[in-house]
Write a structure and sequence with these properties.
single chain
Length: 169
């Protein structure tokens, strides 16, 4: 077989050369992004309840300054342990007016982290204290778990609200 010594070399335009370099990079990034999105969706909807808690009881105690200390029993109904934050329970009255939690937070350090955000094991119930100062004439408040909760029903919009009414004593 003979080789032609003076065969003309094929020259491509600069735009074709640039596309030949950029297209594989774009394809790789696109595939990576799609795989990340699929993994995120699967981790979110893999279980019926990922992190979910509900309020199972509450008691109130009036203080000398007119405020109330509410002890809320929170049950972890998920298959995993979860953390209860200082603002996980929302207290409201009337048509949605929110009362501020006046309980002084602990300093946020690694040593006191378990006090600031107690871990609730799966299926267990813990007590959480909240201090509120309702306006005069308010004798009933609604407590709602407002912490981090991921569940299949929350994603699909079928999640029912978990509220608990408490008569202040």
């Amino acid at each position: 077989m003979k080789w032609k010594a003076n065969a003309p070399e094929k020259n491509y335009k600069t735009s074709v050369k640039v596309l030949a370099v950029i297209l594989p990079i774009i394809a790789f990034i696109s595939v990576w992004a799609v795989l990340e999105a699929i993994a995120d969706i699967n981790s979110t909807i893999k279980y019926n309840h990922y992190y979910a808690c509900e309020i199972v009881g509450a008691e109130s105690e009036k203080q000398d300054d007119g405020s109330y200390i509410i002890t809320v029993s929170v049950k972890n109904i998920s298959s995993y342990q979860t953390l209860l934050d200082r603002n996980s329970i929302r207290v409201e009255y009337g048509n949605g007016t929110i009362l501020e939690n006046r309980m002084a937070p602990y300093p946020d350090t690694e040593i006191l982290r378990s006090i600031n955000r107690p871990v609730i094991p799966s299926g267990r119930t813990v007590e959480h204290k909240i201090q509120i100062l309702p306006p005069d004439g308010i004798n009933t408040v609604r407590l709602q778990y407002y912490g981090t909760a991921y569940g299949r029903y929350k994603i699909t919009g079928e999640d029912n609200e978990s509220t608990y009414s408490l008569k202040l004593s």
